[in-house]
Design a protein that fits this description.
This protein has about 250 residues and is mainly α. The chain contains eleven helices and no strands. Helices cover about 80% and strands about 0% of the residues.
Length: about 250
């Protein structure tokens, strides 16, 4: 599971800022504070290029101590803080632990506010968690109906979260499996009904008529159904259901 949201716009803007800063300082003697500032800028640039958001955030904090009114640094600080939390959440997603990833983002929102990047990430983790649960459920089906319901949920999710469309072949595969499962489930149902009908007929249980009715719904051309109908039509024909025919005739 990989998060899509990352903010690179400020990074590109920062490259321009650094270039201008270095150009303005290259032709004259630089006093100590600006040298420190420039060194921090270079270290920050290195951290950003490596994607080391935690170190970058530390450098930004030091830069802001020197230049407290720099609006750009304030925006960059928010961006890198958000990216730091997202990177940490991604590590837990890589371990298939969306709950922990969600907690990290939620804690960040509670502490630093409802930044759009964090809210978008929270929503994405939520979608990824649903996907994970659906994949697990469809890989361990309990019935054809359950697979069908999961497939419907999955397709609805894809409409709201297009990246999940990569699972379309998986969904199709599981739908085909559900159809096979349904055939098997129906077959087992018919088999169980047949066994019960034969047992009840041997015991001359009149309630067998109700099971035959159920069997007729599941399998109208089943031999037991045909035998029962024939015994009703022609009582002279010997059948395991003759006792029912006799009772009906006496009534």
């Amino acid at each position: 599971m990989t998060l899509m949201f990352k903010n690179n716009f400020l990074f590109r803007a920062f490259l321009i800022l650094v270039a201008l800063s270095l150009a303005s300082c290259s032709k004259k003697e630089v006093p100590e504070p600006p040298r420190v500032y420039r060194q921090l800028l270079l270290e920050l640039l290195s951290s950003l290029e490596k994607g080391d958001h935690k170190t970058a955030l530390a450098k930004i904090t030091r830069l802001r101590d020197i230049d407290k009114t720099n609006i750009f640094l304030a925006k960059l600080e928010n961006s890198e803080r958000n990216n730091m939390y997202i990177t940490e959440a991604q590590e837990y997603l890589d371990q298939n632990n969306p709950d922990k990833a969600m907690k990290i983002i939620q804690d960040a929102i509670n502490t630093h506010g409802k930044h759009k990047l964090l809210l978008d990430t929270k929503n994405e983790i939520y979608q990824l968690k649903i996907i994970s649960n659906l994949v697990i459920s469809m890989n361990n089906p309990t019935s054809a109906v359950k697979v069908a319901k999961d497939a419907v949920r999955f397709r609805a999710l894809i409409k709201n979260y297009p990246p999940a469309s990569v699972f379309n072949p998986f969904i199709q595969e599981k739908i085909a499996l559900a159809l096979e499962m349904e055939k098997g489930e129906n077959s087992r149902s018919v088999s169980d009904l047949s066994s019960d009908i034969i047992s009840m007929a041997e015991e001359k249980d009149p309630a067998v008529k109700h099971l035959i009715s159920e069997l007729a719904v599941e399998s109208p051309n089943h031999p037991l159904v045909r035998e029962y109908l024939l015994s009703l039509k022609d009582p002279s024909v010997k059948s395991k259901f003759s006792y029912i025919t006799s009772e009906t005739k006496e009534e």
